[in-house]
Amino acid sequence: MEDPQLPLLEGCLKGNRKSFEDLVTFFQPKVFALALKFLWNPEDAEDGTQEILIKVISNLGSFRKESKLATWVFRIATNHLINTKKSSSEKRNVNFRKVEIELSKANVENTDSSEITKNLAIHVQAACTHAILLCLKRSYRIAFILGEVFHVSSSDGAWIMEISEANFRKKLSRARLQMDEFLGNHCGISSAKNPCRCKNRIAYSQKSKRINAYLELSENMKAKGTWKMKPLLSESNQVRKAAEVYHSGADFETRHDILKKIKQKIESNQWSLLN
Q1: What does the pLDDT look like over 207-222, one tens digit per residue?
Q2: Of the candidates 30, 26, 57, 32, the residue with the CA atom closest to the CA atom of residue 45
């Protein structure tokens, strides 16, 4: 199969530092996006991204080209996330009932239509939708993120999770059902009949510091000139599927220079491929 990332792999295996840097730079945003949706907490996601990319770099020599390199990277990332210890967010034991109660708090109408309010609402949406994913057990959560957010096929999803295609489809179907049901009954983005609106929760989210970490991510991106604010989905009388809600969210980048950290860690261990 044709794989555009193979030249990077070959360069890394030859000890080419530029190939190593390009490979980390290429996969870092993808791995971070996966980790952030899975773990919710940006700091945990940044730590996880660094650990995953070190595993990727350290195991490049074992890649047997059974899949595309990107699929293999997702396999390593998925294995790491599913088996890592509970994140600080997961320790809160979030479930759909708790989120339902949370959404009922301080949902005060906000009529301001300024760009500042729109920007804050985007951050509320990100923090909220990522938190809702924590209601799914880990295997369902990763199947939903892979299948619905990253559009991974059933065959690739099964290979990534090291399960049968039938099992992957079952996990994805059950996760999709739970997410569609909850968002369809509570989220204003999913259905206009629901009272919850992202901008109505801005004041509460700021007071409770629910969005602070996400604001730090975007402020860092603004400083680098990479922040792109997506418009919130307009109200609709048609019930939107959960996948559409998640596709509408903002794309965040890490605050830290993970490439620099990885290089320091690898060089301190005298990693043979870059000697």
Answers
A1: 888 888 888 888 888 8
A2: 32
Residue 148 tokens, joined = 């619905």
| Helix, strand, coil percentages in the chain from 3-state DSSP, rounded to 5 | 65, 0, 35
To the question of pTM greater than 0.85 for the whole model, the response is yes
Q: Which helix (H) or strand (E) holds 243?
A: helix 242-247
- Among 190, 79, 194, 180, residue whose Cα is nearest residue 136: 180
pLDDT in tens, 148-173: 999 999 999 999 999 999 999 999 99
Contact 125, 213 (CB under 8 A): no
Any alpha helices (H) in 138-211, and if so which ranges?
138-144, 154-161, 165-186, 202-207
**Tell me, what amino acid is at 137?**
K
Please report, for the chain, the start and end positions of each structural domain, with discontinuous segments joined by +.
Answer: 6-274
144-149 long-range Cβ contacts below 8 angstroms, 24+ apart: 144/172, 144/175, 144/176, 144/179, 144/242, 145/34, 145/37, 145/38, 146/74, 146/78, 146/172, 147/172, 147/176, 148/172, 148/176, 148/242, 148/243, 148/246, 149/33, 149/37, 149/243, 149/246, 149/247
Amino acid occupying residue 20: F
| 3-state SS, residue 196 | strand
